[in-house]
Amino acid sequence: MTSVNSVRSVRSVNDVALTVQQTARPTGFPTSDHFRFVESPVPRPAPGTALVENLYWSVDPYHREMMDGDFVLNAPLEGRALGRIVASREPSLPEGEIVFHRQGWRTHAVVRPDEVRRLPHHEGVPLSAYLSVLGGTGLTAYVGLTRIARLREGEDLFVSGAAGAVGTATARFARLLGAGRLVGSAGSAEKVRYLREHVGYDEAFDYRTGPVADLLDKAAPTGIDVFVDNVGGDHLGAAIGALRERGRVVRVGTISQYNTPDAPPVVFNHADVVEKRLRIEGFLVSDHRDVQDELYEFAVPRLLDGTLESDETIVDGFERIVEAFLLMLRGGNTGKILVRK
Ligand SMILES: NC(=O)c1ccc[n+]([C@@H]2O[C@H](COP(=O)([O-])OP(=O)(O)OC[C@H]3O[C@@H](n4cnc5c(N)ncnc54)[C@H](OP(=O)(O)O)[C@@H]3O)[C@@H](O)[C@H]2O)c1
Hints:
By secondary structure, this protein is an alpha/beta fold. Helices cover 27% and strands 25% of the residues. The chain has helices spanning 61-66, 136-148, 165-176, 189-199, 212-219, 234-242, 255-258, 270-275, 292-305, 321-329; strands spanning 2-4, 16-22, 35-41, 50-58, 81-88, 98-101, 108-111, 116-118, 157-159, 182-186, 203-206, 224-229, 243-251, 279-282, 312-316, 336-340. The longest helix has 14 residues, at 292-305. The protein is globular and about 60 Å long. The model is unreliable at 1-13 (pLDDT under 50). The site of NADP nicotinamide-adenine-dinucleotide phosphate (NAP) has 29 residues, from α1, α2, α3 and α7.
């Protein structure tokens, strides 16, 4: 087994499998030096398993959290992927079938039946959608709105991280569920324009241009009913101030802290929570897998008739997977970032 550190020098030929490994723990933002590509012969499936050639990989903010401890150094990493079964020694995993599994960050995976999920066949739905608006991203947005916020028609929403994967799906679903005014925040003027012109946000602001509380006050002068929070920090403090009575905070993620563990604690008026009878609730999408079929029922017909779009940034070539991950942490994506073979 040989390994190379430079992404550019990685060979990508059919008889060689590539696996990404983490080599060191980062402090602050990771770099490509925290990873390496390892070459090995393409594995052969043992009895009861099948060989999957991966086609799409998801890189996610939670991978940054895992880099601090859960990812074992110098070992294959966990990640969501879609691939085609190219050799099988297991009758329930026929060659040619496309499956979802969690052995991402590598070109090939050997899987057992209990390690894969077969994808439903929805004619006309692109494969990438099963890792974006129909996958964990879409499920997070859908559960956040329907189970945690319990959104009612006409209610006004504020979404942080609005131009990202969960943020775009949240707005598109919220609109279809009958939400009132949609306000979003993102990290550039270009993203703000995208939110207004393509995603359906009524108002949006660049959180880097001033104190979030002031920007939110201007964007939602009469307040909000629901805050879907992908970011934490200042956004959370500002939104608690802007929420109306019986408002809800849906705590999805805290990406403002993943690369800055020493970030100061969130400052907000604790009395607001009581006086306005607010509910602040976090959740993990992994606890809501039972909602997956409902998401398909909700989203697939709308994807097919064009009333729902999937926002995606596609990076081509497995050898760019580390680059794609680092790009996402710096805000280089719009919608769900995916790597395509
Ligand atoms: N609870 C769950 O089960 C669950 C499931 C999925 C995701 N999540 C969480 O949801 C959040 C969004 O995940 P995603 O997959 O949709 O990723 P994403 O939003 O597509 O990508 C991350 C985005 O975060 C933004 N960002 C980076 N640093 C930031 C900072 N300091 N302050 C504000 N924004 C920052 C960047 O956009 P800008 O250019 O706008 O800064 C970047 O595009 C993450 O916190 C993630 O951990 C939770």
